[in-house]
């Protein structure tokens, strides 16, 4: 009986979680302007209108630039932090790593307002780069969590064998360690890219006059006639996010299998 109740709970939870996402493509391909049942007919005109909006094109370019830059910077910082935390012992290690991982549990509104106050106090103009700074701050802990798992699963005997054969620490890291953790690096890049692309609160506070895609979507909900186009855009974003997360999970599992580690759970 307990198993039966658990199945009911699991099904109910999945319906509650994914039903709104299922409604996106339904209304995106609906011919009516009003988002309501019953559906009036199949149409792709909202996707066509989506491609004809210059403001949307600018917002997409801004978001892609921010997401690519933030993912590269976050993953680079994550490599250094994960390597240091899994390989070396140093004073106040636990405290320092806890501070680095703190954005995982802090409300984003607090992070955004704090960054806004600090940046304005320093006289820094709000731009795409200030958004990148905020996204690096929140993406780096995710990268560290992914990369720490990759570094922990490495066989240290491979590193020691490289030293015995005359390799330096730098060449060992470049030739031995990085190739082994490359699936984890790719997974980290994809996850941080997805987080940055979908992030709204920090972009809303720090973008200034240069809108990102989530900020553009939020602004368009003031106009009822623009809602079906936003539904079409949301459908594209959901599909893109699922594809990126699937690829990231594939590389994460490939990295664990390559290093001979044990899979303790993942994104999917």
Automatic annotation (TrEMBL):
Pfam (any one): BPD_transp_1
Organism expressing this protein natively: Pseudorhodobacter antarcticus
Keyword list, A-Z: Cell membrane, Membrane, Transmembrane, Transmembrane helix, Transport
Family: Belongs to the binding-protein-dependent transport system permease family. CysTW subfamily.
Designated name of the protein: Spermidine/putrescine transport system permease protein
GO CC list: plasma membrane
Source organism superkingdom: Bacteria
Biological process per Gene Ontology, one example term: transmembrane transport
Membrane topology designation: Multi-pass membrane protein
UniProt xrefs under InterPro entries: Bact_Polyamine_Transport, MetI-like, MetI-like_sf
PANTHER family: PUTRESCINE TRANSPORT SYSTEM PERMEASE PROTEIN POTI (PTHR43848)
PROSITE patterns attached to this UniProt entry: ABC_TM1
Localisation: Cell membrane
Chain segments annotated as transmembrane: 12-39, 59-82, 94-120, 126-147, 180-206, 226-248
Segments forming domain ABC transmembrane type-1: 60-248
């Amino acid at each position: 009986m307990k198993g039966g109740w658990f199945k009911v709970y699991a099904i109910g939870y999945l319906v509650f979680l994914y039903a709104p996402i299922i409604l996106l493509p339904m209304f995106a391909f609906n011919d009516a302007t009003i988002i309501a049942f019953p559906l009036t007919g199949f149409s792709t005109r909202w996707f066509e209108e989506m491609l004809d909006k210059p403001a949307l094109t600018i917002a997409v370019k801004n978001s892609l630039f921010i997401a690519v830059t933030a993912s590269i910077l976050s993953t680079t910082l994550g490599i250094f932090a994960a390597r240091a935390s899994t390989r070396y012992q140093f004073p106040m290690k636990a405290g320092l790593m806890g501070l680095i991982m703190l954005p995982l549990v802090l409300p984003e509104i607090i992070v955004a307002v704090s960054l806004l106050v600090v940046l304005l106090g320093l006289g820094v103009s709000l731009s795409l780069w200030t958004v990148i700074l905020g996204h690096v701050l929140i993406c780096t802990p995710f990268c560290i969590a992914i990369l720490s798992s990759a570094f922990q699963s490495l066989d240290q005997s491979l590193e020691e064998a490289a030293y015995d054969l005359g390799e330096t620490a730098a060449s060992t890291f470049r030739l031995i360690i990085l190739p082994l953790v490359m699936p984890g690096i790719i997974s980290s890049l994809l996850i941080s890219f997805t987080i940055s692309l979908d992030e709204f609160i920090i972009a809303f506070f720090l973008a200034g006059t240069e809108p990102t895609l989530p900020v553009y979507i939020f602004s368009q909900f003031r106009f009822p006639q623009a809602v079906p186009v936003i539904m079409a855009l949301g459908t594209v974003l959901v599909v893109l996010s699922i594809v990126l997360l699937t690829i990231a999970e594939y590389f994460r599992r490939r990295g664990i299998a390559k290093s001979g580690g044990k899979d303790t759970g993942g994104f999917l």
